[in-house]
Amino acid sequence: MDGVRILYFAWLRERAGRAEEIVNPPPDVHTVGALMQWLGTQHNSLAEAFATPRLVRAAVNQNFAGPTTTLANGDEVAFFPPVTGG
Amino acid sequence: MAEVRVQAADFSPGAELDGLLARAPGAGGIASFIGVVRSGVERPIRSMTLEHYPAMTLPAIERIAAEAETRFSLLGCTVIHRFGQLLPADRIVFVAAAASHRRAALQATEFLIDWLKTKAPFWKQEELPDGTTRWVDAVPQDVIDAARW
């Protein structure tokens, strides 16, 4: 898959050491869950968070998404902790 | 019609209520809620910073507002959510709903704030009196509250 734009928010952004990046995951990464696993192998600092589903939420193209949500080239995928607004 | 704003600046609750009433002819009641930065006596904070996901925040809140208007047959509603650094007692969020009768307005207000807390992409970080910071954890009860509707 090519050109997936990753955004990180809150403590995930701090732990990643960046707010965003463009990644090209291997061809077998088709879902949000698989992308999380793969990103965990790319960033040691995120491996623990990505291995703990209750800590991380995701959105694909600005819509909340789950681990089984499928991905396409050029998608914007955001990772963040459970929201705490209001 | 829903009016939704995401902004750093403060707002005037009185002006917002007047504006909603003007947009909702025939309304029999307006209910509102204001969330403010809490700094407890036992756990004081120096400031609170709200981070958000700019490309997603406005559409997410607009969907919540549209859902409220449909569910409660509202004549209008207003949602304002601030971001950036805020101080204790500063206003964070404003929710108001106008309806023909009080029950719909009151329930819609509660619905709006419950859903905002679990479905709008904001994250709070507290700055403590010693200068250290901590991200606020999500409250499990908020998810239960949002699921009531």
Quick overview:
The complex is a heterodimer of chains A (86) and B (149). With 86 residues, chain A is of the alpha+beta class.
Description of the molecule:
The complex is a heterodimer of chains A (86) and B (149). Chain A is of the alpha+beta class. Chain A contains three helices and five strands. Chain A has helices spanning 10-16, 32-42, 44-50, and strands spanning 4-8, 20-23, 57-60, 63-65, 76-80. Chain B has 149 residues and is an alpha+beta fold. The chains are: A alpha+beta (86), B alpha+beta (149). Chains A and B meet through strand 5 of A and strand 3, helix 2, helix 3 and strand 7 of B.
Give the helices and strands, then pairings.
The complex is a heterodimer of chains A (86) and B (149).
Chain A: E1 4-8, H1 10-16, E2 20-23, H2 32-42, H3 44-50, E3 57-60, E4 63-65, E5 76-80
Parallel strand pairs in A: 1-5
Antiparallel strand pairs in A: 1-2, 3-4, 3-5
Helix pairs in contact in A: 2-3
Chain B: E1 2-7, H1 13-23, E2 29-36, E3 47-52, H2 54-71, E4 76-82, E5 84-86, E6 91-99, H3 102-119, E7 122-127, E8 133-135, H4 140-147
Parallel strand pairs in B: 1-4
Antiparallel strand pairs in B: 2-6, 3-5, 3-7, 4-6, 7-8
Helix pairs in contact in B: 2-3, 3-4
